[in-house]
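Ticket reopened. Same input as before:
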Amino acid sequence: MTVYVAHRLLQALFVCLGISVITFLLLHVAGDPVLLLLPQSASDADVALLKQKLGLDRPLVVQYIAFLGDALKGDFGQSLFTQESAFSLILERMPATLELTLAGTLVGLAVAIPLGVLAAIKRGSFLDRLSTVGAVGGQAMPIFWLGIMLIILFAVKLRVLPASGRGTLAHLILPAITLGVYLAPLTMRLTRSGMLDVLTQDYIRTARAKGVVERVVLFKHALRNAAIPIVTILGIQFGRLLGGAIVTETVFAWPGVASLAVKAIRTYDYPVVQGSVVFLALLIVVVNLLTDLAVAWIDPRIRLGAGRD
Amino acid sequence: MTSLGRLRPLAAGGLILGVAVCAAVLAPALAPHDPYAQAVGARLIPPVWEEGGGWTNPLGTDPLGRDLLSRIIYGARISISAAALAVAVSMVLGVLMGLVAGYYAGRVDTVISNLVNLMLAFPFLLLALAAVAVVGPGFRNMVIVLGLTGWPIYTRVVRAETLKYREREFVLAARALGLGSWRVIWGHVLPNLINTIIVMASLEVARMIILESFLSFLGLGIQPPTPSWGSMLGEGRVYMFTHWWLAAFPGLAIFMTTLGINLFGDGLRDLLDPHRVLAAATARAE
Amino acid sequence: MENVKLVIRCSLALLAGLLLAVTPVAAAPKGRVVAALGSDTSTMDPHMHTERVGIIIQQHIFDSLLGRDTKTWHPVPHLAESVTSVNATTWELKLRRGVKFHNGEPFTAESVKFSIERVLNPDQKSPIRGNFTWVKSVDVVDDYTVRITTVKPYPLFHEILTFGNFVMLPPKYVREKGDAHVARNPVGTGPFRFVEWKKGEQTTLEANEQYWKGAPAIKTLVFRVIPEPATQIAELLSGGVDLIRAVPPDQLSVIKSSKVARVTATKILRVVYLQMDGDARAAKTPLTDVRVRRAVNHAVNVDEIMQKILGGLAVRTPSGGNPLAFGTDASIKAYAWDPERAKKLLAEAGYPGGFEISLNTYAGSIVNVEQVAQAAMGYLGQAGIRVKPRHFADVGQYLANFRGSKLDGITMASWGYNSVFDSDAIFYTHFHTGEPYAYNTAKEMDTWLEEARSTVDTKKRRELYSRFQRFIVDQAYWVPMYGQYTIEAVSNKLNYEASSDEIMRIFAATWKD
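Engineering reply: fixed in the latest deploy. New output:
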């Protein structure tokens, strides 16, 4: 088990490093923030001066090494626009994104898992068909369309919920539903197929034959085993979740990291982009690691050292 | 489920998909107007059943007076072909990587697996944004970006399966006979994976259609005036209060086509190999 | 004893009455107003950014030396009570007395000297510095008198003193606390004092009851950041916000038909035009021939764009100059829409079958830019000019290409005059040799432009600009289209009108009751 954990940690490190290099290269090849920092009427001399002041005229390799050195000390540099530490900018907005993704995940799970279990039990029934169609519908629905529809319905027409912003629990409801609907379909289908697969196994038939109560059969035996692929997928879905968060944060004016990163990319605010991408990737890696560990814990085959690969 | 019942989703999906593909292929014959023909004097006309609408433009017109129905029919061409091409690129790349990783194992496998983890950890959207910022938006670049980010899932599944198959008797026998590695991979391992790959690819097409609309929402995908469902949806989002049809119909088109593909793909999977359900679903990472 | 008490009571009453009569009885500020902005300001230090949203917020916290009359938009006294010209290169400002900064620091000539020198200081790295390089020196004559000397005679002196970012800062506070603190805790002389800034989310301000012009009618003012236009409209309709700006013209009907809000729109300085690379600065092009350029002018149906796409909320600019700006010649006629004539001109110039050309656009301050661009493409196509669209999703890349001589063909661009209501602010940088945005130049134009910006004789300047405008229209250097409107929407609870300098004057709004 320890070997496994160590192995995964090393992988995680490699991943983070790789991401930082890719981001760095892409950004510096992509564009020049200097012109955005000055008014349209600035002279070419002004532009050159600012470029030099920001150190953007040094060779790429030098810039990258400098970045890496500082990053290891926790300093991602200052936003080119607001001169604030990129690190503190990201940290400030992180809780909002975490709150949103957590709420979205909870809503998604609350919808997906019961539905998936029910669909598996009542396989072939109307409910099953309906939930499949619903799942496809959820996957096919563009997330911003759903968000705006919810705002129109609940905020404008019915006036029961605020349209945007972050503050009270009421503000969290619509964005969480939007993100949850984004997540639910795949999770539901996995739960369903996982349960189906498990329910036909021998040990289930044995448990039933032994007279174990159906509910116990379902939850203790079936769901537990079906949990493995679900948990794995959740970890991988986290990356997708952040993608959904970008749109959700924009539509609902939610002050999180995802929208910060997008704005930074558009304005070539290198330090903020590098910082937030590395941060987000780190988060994804950590979540993946945790889910892998959780799976390893659930699945005794791995725990006992058979190795994952 | 009875064997006929199994065919029902396949048939339903196939029907819907057929309609979409027909629209794509027969667009010039089906569309009542030129999707690019602007008529600034006839902009924002509502659908025929609303007040102010007419049969000239059954689904209404967009802010430049272009017929929505025609744009949706032509949009089928663009959206489906973009998705299909992206899937083709990612599938070829991903399967190849998976075969190599699974068959040769060892160091090669480690490198490829780490690359897969790297790709999966990287927030797709940020990668797409940065990539498009470098190469510029548009059909070709979008297909490339989608293709280059979609391969990891194929690799994961194919690799896992290849690992299993390389120890099977018929493969060992082939190798003992002295067949070169590639012939073994190509002729003996791959055929067993075709079903899985086909199912994955078909479902991926649906996902690609959605991703295209995602990129277009941010202005990075297909550029106007080319009609694609995703970009029409993006353009229509500000109009949702006043001219709801601009976003509703492309959205409906995306929904129906995706539904069709998913039903078809699921039906195909059930038909070809019901035991693959878990493996394919587990690996379909996004 | 009773009599004494009576006298005292009467005297007190009399005194109270006298006091009441003397002090201005203003209604106390009340209520809360929320305004939505599409993005947040990057800093609360007004000298360190050039963003419209930042200017809007900070014009509520700070004051400029001169303000604007909301009917004529001419500069009027504000913190400076009078501006007199001592000689061609020296101006004397008399300052208003009794004005205090929010922290109690008095506003004096020292504050003016400090603020100007701060902007000019190269180490400050102020992005608005380039607008003030005409200043030679600032001298304090006495506590309420300042003299500013210019390098050359500077005709835009009054205009520049109304500049949105160019506000007065308290010297003692800034020196003590340092720039980093000032960037997050602004202290000015304005109608509202700063309460809180939740970055990326919202800014909260509170009425300054001691404001020298009288306290504003609104007690609490919140600026919320809402990036998505559809969400902004939803918030307005559901009562969540009271003011929104940059409303797309197509969305006005739903606001007008609601019972809770109304639309307020007015002309602004920003003009939209099609720039043509007549000097072939970027690449060889048919546009070097004046007949081709005239053909392009005849091909585009500007009036239809204005009516249909902008809902009539635009004003034609025959020479490219905005009617609001000084020096715009209103007698100049625009090229009429005439696709047949366009085709004829093209044939004369040697292009009977038309030709192919790029149209560059970017996502920015042009309202409905995609639709205007596509409409333009359509019209050009009808005249035989096949357009290849080239869109820049990012302003940075677009600007780099514009300045770097890489924008060949036709470019759809807009210009905000730098918020200066004067022709110099548009024509110099677009037509003077060597300027970053000049893709059409000529010797005569250089002379006229240089002369016009170095004399303060308004009659002379008007003549020069008229001559200049006739020349560029005759040479058809660009396709002048229209001046935009600012389109805002406000809750029916407030009396509020949009302003032509795009500064939302929420400090002047009052409650409807």
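The mean pLDDT of chain A is 77. Chain A is about 80% helix and 0% strand. Please confirm and we'll close it.
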